[in-house]
Amino acid sequence: MKGFVFHGPGQASWESVPDPGIKDPTDAIVRVEAVTVCGTDLHILKGHVPEVEPGTVLGHEAVGEIVEAGREVHAVRPGDRVLVSCITACGRCRYCWERTYGQCRGGGGWILGHLIDGTQAEYVRVPYADLSVHTLPGALDGKDAVLLADIFPTGYEVGVLNGRVQPGDTVAVVGTGPVGLAAIATAQLYAPERVVAVDMAATRLDAAKGLGADAVADAREGPEQLIEDLTDGLGADVVIEAVGTPETFELCTRVVRPGGHVANVGVHGKPATLHLEELWSRNLTITTGLVDTYSTPTLLRMAAAGRLPTSPLVTHAFPLDFMEEGYDVFARAADTGALKVVLGEPQHDVLAVRAT
């Protein structure tokens, strides 16, 4: 088979690799129908994730068909169409019992495309398949379902739920990439008074408005004043950081109201200053987190019922063997306007390229 193989910082290619096989009785082999490229994949290519060894197939999000299942797999069987979660769960350790699957200590957590071969290939081995794949509702298209492997549960769990969005809240989302947009979309489930989106890219701010943001602000033009004006000087009840830079994190701590919540979702590669000399008296709650994907079954049902706006986030689509082109378009999002790039089998209508 072929897969997208990491060879070191700045080096990766679509090439022949060994077919995966069942190693443990809880494994399943999935024939890949659709995958997507994540910002974390770009971090790996830049050398920011040193645990990823050269020779690893990248990717941690996929939709596909079960072609083989180990003798201890009971939830799915060959022929089932499934969503492959970005998080693998052993189901036996303390963290899995608490549904914090991202912290799994039994051989799970974020392992696909990180510690073992991932999904950006024609086939993928998924350990602990009973808890790590989800049967797809028949009405759900692969291009929509694949967005539920990572970005929607991440924006919802680490942003909206950790931030404790409540009816009537002012919610500010700093960073309107795919995860920030997913947070904007799922924040609507809690009837906030308003959602304010902050970014530097006009195309992403337009996308934010399309997904329900009530106001948008260019991060270079003083979003603090807009949020202050909208809240009578109080600040936002919930601020979701969805970028991962020191500047954006510190902006979030400036625009949150006393007693509010800052939910950090962004992947930080550099230290950010926590200004406790200013924040200690403000009764803030600051949360961090790796997605656990416990919400994925709920999100799948909502998507199948047409309650989640997934399709607007897919801006580009390619055949699976156009992986290098897909990465290039996603990496140049400022020029291409890419939000999510989906790659998959040519016979699926998802693969008609919308834009390049």
From TrEMBL:
Spans through the membrane: none
Residue span of region Disordered: 1-20
Stored PANTHER family: NADP-DEPENDENT ISOPROPANOL DEHYDROGENASE, ZINC-TYPE ALCOHOL DEHYDROGENASE-LIKE
Family statement drawn from the similarity comment of this UniProt entry: Belongs to the zinc-containing alcohol dehydrogenase family.
Enoyl reductase (ER) domain sequence ranges: 8-343
InterPro entries in alphabetical order: ADH-like_C, ADH-like_N, ADH_Zn_CS, ER, GroES-like_sf, NAD(P)-bd_dom_sf
Superkingdom classification of source: Bacteria
Cofactor(s) needed by this chain: Zn(2+)
Name under which the protein is recorded: Zinc-dependent alcohol dehydrogenase family protein
Key words of the record: Metal-binding, Oxidoreductase, Zinc
Pfam families in the record: ADH_N (PF08240), ADH_zinc_N (PF00107)
GO MF terms held by the record: oxidoreductase activity; zinc ion binding
Biological source species: Streptomyces phyllanthi
